[in-house]
């Protein structure tokens, strides 16, 4: 990859105060977290709301940093490059580094299922490649460049998650990531405050194609109405995966494995299989990789508390992902009682109340025996459920605390419980309490 101090310095600009003898030195990696620095890395000192990275410069030098990139010149005999904006430099460094990489880079986006699909793709590719994947919520204009900069010599493939909520963000991410393979999982009612409607969501997500080369590959969910309208990207037809009554695509030569419950997770597994096929992973390896997938916390993991079975899907929510969660909950006909605990879905724009009401109607048809809604917008979900299923039990609460005061009375041993709400509703508080009951 020939990633050395000279090339990094050229990429970031600024005022270099580095000994000439250091310029041909190979770089191990680039970090902004002093705790993650390894000898031979470069440290970028960023100024955050709570922490100023400049205060850690002496420590990173003691740990073996080659030099630091900073906005304020450090004291003492420390090699550094002074720049105006450390976060802008982070993006420039990642873009320059990405241009040197020869390994396949897979980028995953979509309104729902990004993280689960990323995990499945990484697991499948790990049967053949040494994979670097996005960790945690590092899918934005800070986290994604940092992930690229964590790619080391031993890695032979990378799987990146790309998340956005405004127009233009995906184009900037694509300019840095330059994906060889782009996967879009779904177009759904998400971030409508900024994106307007489903056509706006499609437009924003499709920005991922902007900086892809002519030999790159686009993989799309063929069961998604909006994604099916994409006929070609840079003159090349996309690969579609789908899961329907007439079978699934891709169809493997050995029995397919779906590691997580729910039809939406089956589609995610098919996306991973499609990526595996493109990158030369055998069908047997694809199945082996899928068998090793485990749910990421808050995104569909199943938790047995001893008293309840909890479908923990409370990391985030929009109407499409919540409907999928309800479908997964109600697929289990063997549960003593199926309970949906739903909270507000945020950032849905001017149609937010109508979308919550329609979700309630869907819940009424889906079949949970008990619906509990929490939050001001979810009062509409409660109303929709009451209209669609007037004979079934339902309760609405203003906040988590009010529900938790009554939870012991409303819930019964053996209940199968779905927790689903936007991250801002802090449903992790409810999960913690359920584990203690």
Structure description:
35% of the residues lie in helices and 17% in strands. It is α/β, with parallel strands linked by helices. It folds into 3 domains: 89 residues, Udp-n-acetylmuramoylalanyl-d-glutamate--2,6- Diaminopimelate Ligase, Chain: A, domain 1, CATH 3.40.1390; 191 residues, UDP-N-acetylmuramoyl-L-alanine:D-glutamate ligase, CATH 3.40.1190.10; 136 residues, Mur ligase, C-terminal domain (Protein-Tyrosine Phosphatase, Chain A, Alpha-Beta Complex), CATH 3.90.190. The strands form 3 sheets. Strands 7-8-6-9-10-11-12 form a 7-stranded mixed sheet, sandwiched between helices. The chain has a 6-stranded mixed sheet with strand order 13-14-18-15-16-17, sandwiched between helices. Strands 1-5-4-3-2 form a 5-stranded mixed sheet. The longest helix has 16 residues. It is globular. The model has no long low-confidence stretch (mean pLDDT 94).
CATH homologous superfamily caption of the largest domain: Mur-like, catalytic domain
- Percent in helix: 25-40%
> Which stretches of 5+ consecutive residues score pLDDT under 50?
none
CATH fold-type name of the largest domain: UDP-N-acetylmuramoyl-L-alanine:D-glutamate ligase
CATH architecture identity of the largest domain: 3-Layer(aba) Sandwich
Number of strands: 18
Shape designation? globular
Q: How would a textbook summarize the main sheet?
A: 7 strands, mixed
């Amino acid at each position: 990859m020939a990633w050395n101090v000279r090339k990094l310095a050229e990429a970031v600009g600024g005022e270099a105060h580095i000994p000439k003898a250091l310029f041909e030195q190979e770089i191990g990696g680039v970090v902004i977290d002093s705790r993650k620095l390894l000898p031979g890395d470069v440290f970028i000192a960023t100024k955050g709301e709570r922490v100023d990275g400049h205060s850690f410069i002496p420590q990173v030098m003691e740990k073996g940093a080659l030099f630091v990139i900073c906005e304020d010149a450090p004291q003492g005999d420390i090699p550094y490059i002074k720049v105006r904006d450390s976060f802008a430099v982070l993006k420039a460094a990642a873009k320059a580094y990405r241009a040197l990489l020869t390994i396949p880079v897979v980028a995953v986006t979509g309104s729902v299922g990004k993280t689960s699909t990323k995990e499945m793709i990484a697991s499948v590719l790990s049967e053949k490649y040494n994979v670097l994947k996005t960790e945690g919520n590092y899918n934005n204009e800070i986290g994604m460049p940092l992930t690229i900069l964590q790619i080391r010599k031993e890695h032979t493939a990378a799987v990146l998650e790309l998340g956005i909520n405004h127009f233009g963000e995906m184009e900037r991410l694509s300019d840095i990531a330059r994906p060889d393979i782009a996967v879009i999982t779904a177009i759904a009612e998400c971030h409508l405050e900024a994106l307007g409607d489903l056509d706006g969501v499609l437009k924003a997500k499709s920005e991922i194609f902007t900086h892809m080369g002519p030999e790159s590959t686009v993989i799309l969910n063929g069961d998604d109405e909006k994604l099916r309208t994409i006929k070609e990207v840079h003159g090349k037809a996309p690969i579609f995966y789908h899961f329907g009554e007439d079978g699934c695509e891709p169809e493997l030569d050995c029995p397919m494995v779906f590691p997580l419950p729910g039809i939406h997770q089956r589609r995610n597994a098919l996306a991973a299989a499609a990526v595996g096929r493109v990158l030369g992973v055998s069908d047997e390896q694809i199945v082996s990789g899928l068998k090793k997938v485990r749910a990421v916390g808050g995104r569909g993991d199943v938790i047995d508390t001893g008293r309840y079975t909890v479908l923990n899907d409370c990391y985030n929510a929009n109407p499409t992902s919540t409907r999928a969660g309800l479908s997964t909950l109600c697929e289990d006909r063997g549960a003593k009682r199926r309970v949906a605990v739903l909270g507000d879905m945020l950032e849905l724009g001017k149609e937010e109340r109508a979308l919550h009401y329609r979700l309630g109607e869907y819940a009424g048809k889906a079949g949970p025996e008990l619906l509990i809604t929490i939050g001001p917008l979810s009062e509409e979900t409660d109303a929709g459920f009451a209209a669609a299923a007037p004979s079934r039990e339902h309760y609405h609460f203003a906040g988590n605390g009010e529900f938790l005061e009554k939870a012991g009375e409303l819930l019964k041993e053996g209940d199968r419980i779905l927790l689903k709400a936007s991250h801002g509703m802090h449903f992790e508080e409810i999960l913690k309490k359920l584990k203690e009951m």
